[in-house]
# Entry
Amino acid sequence: MIRLAFRNLFQNKTRLIISVGGVALALLLILVLDAVVTGVQSQVTSYIDNSNADVIVSQENVRNLHMAYSAIPASYETRVRNVAGVASVTPIHYLTNLVEVGEGRGVRASNLAYVIGLPREVNAGGPWHVVAGKALPSDGEAIIDRGVAVNSHVGIGDMVKILGEEFKIAGLSEGTATVSGGSVAFIAEKDFVRTRKDRGSVSFLFVRVRPNVSPAVIAAQIEKQVDKATAQTREQFAERERQVVNDMSTDIVTIMNLIGFLIGVAVMALTVYTATLARRAEYGVLKALGAQNAHVYGVVMAQAFISVVLGFGVGLGITLLLVALVPQMDLPITLQVSGASLVKVASVSLVIAALSALLPIKQIAGLDPARVFRGR
# Structure
């Protein structure tokens, strides 16, 4: 039955290309929109996910970065460092501010960014993928997103204004831009404190725990031993950040994804349905040769599944190609294919293929084999 389905499918190459191409384009739409949504969600927490911190300590009841303000006494660094199981503590200064670039070349651009003030020794919270220049900023220097720099026509050695002061671009990082147009910029702690005129506090403490020690246990110990502080594992902090940002900005993306999914499913169903009806002559030949309806139905279903599998492979291949190409275009967006998306799309595709192939089966069951030989 499978062999017969293959032979029937590949007998007419043009029809095969059209049917598989229609399915591939429909699934491509679904896969790409899913990749956009997954990419947006990963960008939202990219700084946290790549911070290398096991536990994040903040002001009491502050549980995320976006649209939040946290200030804890600088002395908390010592108190947290003394908690059993803590390997290192990195104080982080944080503020959302405009990064203004390109003034010296007649190009003026403003980019909203998470501005991070880093100490001289950084065990967590620093840039995680510097593609040019220095890995950490010194006094008077900044590390900004490469896409922001390219789009603003600036580079290493040019000046950028952060927190109202001029900094020399010392490094360019990747993975630090978001689909909303924001980014992450890094400056030295000394510069951050000078511009903000606040020497007695820090925003967050990024904690690394010792090997074989549970971050959740350390977070609970920190909250127990340090007054008026909230301690969360990196995963908890990222999940809270994702929830806050998603509630504010990604509903429209989710709705677009749902609409695209429905359109893709409809196109795929129509393609499979039409392709099945277009092969009535072949099914008539099978019935004329004595094939039972059950056997014909099996061939119909096999051909539908083969078409969808081939279309899924083509659509996934193009999607993965786009995933690789988009980062080279300096666009503030990331495409990311998730396992959950693949399982969802594959499962729905097979169900829709089965239903779409079953719909014309009534016509095939009532097909008169003699009509095949009379040219229908």
